[in-house]
Amino acid sequence: MKVGQPTLGVALDRLPAHRGALVERVDAAGAHQPAERAAQLADIGFVPGEIVSVLARAWPGGDPLVVRVGHSSFALRRAEAACVQVLPLPAAPAP
Known about the structure:
32% strand, globular, alpha+beta
């Protein structure tokens, strides 16, 4: 996806808990983070096409978030999670 192109995605820090999503891109500049933040997130698995979900948010304030990417779970600050743009997957139908 090119810079400035519209997206239907959301930042990972705004994804509802337990909702799966695909990583669309990692953009540290758009989240006002240092440029190396995008590389750090990619190193731990936040790469386009990877499935992610928010498992939990700390209380109070929701910072940090517990996030699953692939088969690993990480605690990310909300500012770090805001660097990851995701495309939410369709919700599973209720039984």
